[in-house]
## 1
Amino acid sequence: MGAQESLPDPPAQMHHYYSKFMRECPSGLLSLHEFKKLLDLQGLDPQGDVYIKRVFDIFDLNQDGFIDFLEFIAAINLVIRGKIDQKLKWYFKLYDADGNGCIDKKELLSIFRAIQAINGYTNMTAEEFTNMIFQKIDINNDGELTLEEFINGVEKDEDLMELITKSFDLSNVLKVIQNGRRNSV
Ligand SMILES: [Ca+2]
Ligand SMILES: [Ca+2]
Ligand SMILES: [Ca+2]
């Protein structure tokens, strides 16, 4: 609906992102260290660091320890064009730390603690947040969230959607990509 028309045609866009990527990352391979620098997330406490490493690992599709240009483009596509479902799948992957296809309370709790370590202030404790989510969307009450429960539950609940989106703000990633890092050191 209109929004996409304002974007340059794909090849030009690709070129645009390629120059940005190469400017931020002349080697063509973005390391975890550079990723944190790019997002201005250095000097986090250990919990926050573990969390950002998980975000990095999800973007690092071939798991070679670097984000290359294609992986970078895949991330941009998710941020710009991804449908809500695709984005929620991404968050699900982020929260499902052991990758067994379900989010349990421990996983959600540790994610939310890490988010607090990064963002600081929240008006709920990590425990309250976790219990609230399970009360709302663990439909069969088995203490685990499947992908369906997660997507259906979050889609139906605006507050929850906002909380989840804030847990790792993909639009901030895009802002950094568009404008470059806030203060180049
Ligand atoms: Ca990679
Ligand atoms: Ca799990
Ligand atoms: Ca369940």
## 2
Amino acid sequence: MPRREARSVVGTETVGPYTLLRVARGGLEPGLPGQFFMLEAPGRVLPRPMSLCLAPAGELAFLIDPIGPGTRALCALAAGDRIGILGPLGNGFRLDVERPLLVGGGIGVAPFPYLSERLGEPPAVLGFRTAWHAEAAALVPNAEVVLEPAYVTEVMPAGHDVLACGPEPMLEAVRRLTPHAQLAWEAPMACGYGACYGCVVEIEGRLKRLCVEGPVLAAA
Ligand SMILES: Cc1cc2nc3c(=O)[nH]c(=O)nc-3n(C[C@H](O)[C@H](O)[C@H](O)COP(=O)(O)OP(=O)(O)OC[C@H]3O[C@@H](n4cnc5c(N)ncnc54)[C@H](O)[C@@H]3O)c2cc1C
Ligand code: FES
């Protein structure tokens, strides 16, 4: 069950351009890989959705790309600061797959360290803009890294159960190659639990709330 708690920041680590924010777990459950938490960013009215990256004992960790005011405020937190967290929310990845392959790009790799752990460290193909961004691949065991101008879809081996997270054009390309892939999508989210309708997207011709129906959806 999702819970809202005020938790203490344990510490932060720099991973390329990203920040790994480690928070004391308290009574919060880590949930399934691909589920997300709403993190209250200091000085911002609305919380920001973040996938769980790692679930070490007693902690929850989030990999954050500082792209705007909310994410920059989260990355500036320091050990001992307090932060409000709600979760776990949404639908995560199905783990009943026989030959998993993780396919991700950029900050889309954020849920993969926890997903990899839960799936027994399957192979992964991860795409990044630069070698600096690719430092995040060190968090994902058994990862093959491709840098632009090459794309993950050029090196994806066939015959796997694909679990993917990344920018929309990458997910669309993965969907064309592997119609049964599980894909983690993004949309702006204000509440994270179905109340605001801010995350409505068209799914199979019908408008649905991604925070409730997703963020992980079957491609077909
Ligand atoms: C389910 C889910 C899980 C996520 N997990 C992570 C994660 O693990 N790590 C991480 O760094 N980020 C993650 N994100 C994205 C993150 O929530 C946004 O980058 C953040 O809310 C932006 O807030 P901001 O105030 O920094 O920037 P803003 O000023 O709010 O946004 C900066 C720019 O990004 C666009 N934008 C913001 N949010 C989204 C969104 N959700 N989808 C598409 N465009 C958006 C805005 O339109 C704007 O152009 C996730 C999003 C979702 C929906
Ligand atoms: S984020 Fe509010 S309904 Fe989905």
